[in-house]
Specification:
By secondary structure, the chain is an alpha+beta fold. About 45% of the residues lie in helices and about 15% in strands. The strands form four sheets. A four-stranded antiparallel beta sheet has the order 1-2-3-4, with no helix packed on it. Strands 6-8-7 form a three-stranded antiparallel beta sheet, with no helix packed on it. Helix 3 packs across helix 6, helix 3 packs across helix 11 and helix 9 crosses helix 10. The radius of gyration is 30 Å and the shape is flat. The relative contact order is 0.08.
Length: about 425
């Protein structure tokens, strides 16, 4: 019969109340000798046979002096507190907690008539992350699995930084957008549905995402409004800067990872500066900190991250006071370009390399009219949003209404 979380927790607490040492402090030892016939199940070393008195009770056990594992005998054997046994009990508690939470979620779904999430309701960043996971792996012309195997992915191939990949993965799991095959598995089934599909295949989800991101808005848009597009673009750019910093720190064998304060300040800089200008500031700041030996090898408590953020703030403040013209630094050719950045910047927005060369406000002037136009499009004759796009260029679009067959031609400026 499997243990519940309450049983395991009670056992864990009782065992600690009995003794917290790996080997008991006995009141009296009757005998203690090496028993070559008994080997430790953890490290295979020969164990000691110990007989003694513990709180006026006779006790007998084998004890390993190498890994401190003990095997107790008697009507009520005691718990061992070696590192191996503690880890095993901790894993058992975690597994029991996972099973109970899974049972609660399953019960909740049954009460709510098996709630699934509509693909349309995901944020633009979530849709982009999901497309990056399935694109290239899920295709109608090649065999594929019906699950996502996170162990298969290298984070920087998918997202512009390790932090963003980890953050989005955790959100998908916590929000139940994906469901694990079993405890501890990195394979997850999607818990999403499409209009007209209750349990769509992963191929159907991939095709819908490709239609949104790759069809130049002719088959719908993946965003709700233009502000969501700007927020997603800022997030990707900020994590591109984080990846740039990690890239340079790796050359010095120094660990670097961002916190939310640094990411937020990068977004502040990117509202005024181009990505390549922020690259230049970050490179100067890291070079200065490295020459002054102010970078910690392990980045404990985000010491490197906070020092870089403060140095960037000082550079920016001094530059504004003295009206400096911030130079640019190109993105290193060997710095990995993530799938999320490629799909969003080049395929959806069509910006290309200029997205890194010019400030965001300048790029935004070019793409905002088109984004707003496809968000608010409707037939001027009957008001229907059921339109097909017959022609689409950078500055002109032709629509045909499916309801009244009205044909309209627009110039997008």
């Amino acid at each position: 019969m499997p243990f519940t979380l309450a049983d395991l927790s009670a056992t864990f607490s009782r065992s600690f109340s009995c003794a917290c040492l790996t080997m008991l402090e006995l009141n009296q030892i009757y005998q203690k000798h090496l028993d070559a016939s008994q080997h430790c199940p953890c490290c295979q070393s020969a164990m000691l046979w110990v007989e003694g008195e513990y709180y006026y009770k006779d006790i007998q056990f084998h004890h390993c002096t190498h890994c401190q594992h003990s095997i107790y005998y008697g009507e009520q054997p005691m718990q061992c507190h070696c590192d191996t046994c503690l880890k095993q009990r901790k894993k058992a508690i975690q597994a029991a907690r996972f099973d109970e939470r899974k049972a609660e979620r399953q019960k909740k779904r049954e009460q709510q008539d098996n709630v699934e999430f509509l693909l349309d309701d995901l944020t633009l960043l979530d849709k982009l992350f999901l497309l990056s996971l399935v694109d290239g792996l899920v295709d109608e012309h090649s065999p594929h699995h019906e699950w996502l195997d996170f162990a298969h992915y290298y984070p920087l191939q998918i997202a512009p930084s390790y932090q963003l990949f980890k953050q989005l993965k955790q959100r998908f799991i916590q929000q139940d957008y994906v469901i694990p095959q079993q405890h501890g598995s990195e394979k997850y089934y999607t818990n999403l549905r499409l209009h007209g599909y209750r349990e769509p295949s992963i191929l159907s989800i991939a095709q819908q995402l490709r239609a949104w991101f790759y069809a130049d808005f002719t088959q719908g848009v993946p965003y709700k409004n233009s502000d969501e597009v700007k927020h997603t673009l800022l997030t990707l750019f900020a994590h591109e800067v984080v990846n740039f910093c990690q890239y340079h720190c790796q050359k010095w064998q120094i660990q670097f990872y961002a916190n939310q304060q640094l990411i937020d300040y990068c977004k502040v800089l990117l509202n005024d500066l181009a990505v390549q200008q922020v690259f230049y500031l970050a490179n100067r700041a890291l070079q200065y900190l490295h020459e002054q030996k102010l970078l910690d090898k392990s980045n404990q408590n985000f010491v490197n991250t906070n020092r870089l953020r403060k140095t960037l703030m000082q550079y920016r403040e001094l530059g504004q006071q003295q009206s400096w013209e911030t130079a640019t630094l190109q993105r290193p050719a060997d710095l990995m370009y993530s799938q999320m950045s490629y799909i969003f910047i080049e395929r959806l927005l069509g910006l290309g390399e200029q997205a890194f060369q010019q400030p965001l406000w300048k790029s935004w002037q070019d793409i905002l009219p088109r984004l707003r136009f496809f968000t608010d499009r409707h037939c001027i004759h009957c008001g229907s949003r059921d339109l097909t796009i017959e022609y689409s260029a950078k500055d002109a679009v032709s629509f045909c209404c499916l309801r009244c067959k009205q044909q309209d031609h627009y110039f997008v400026e």
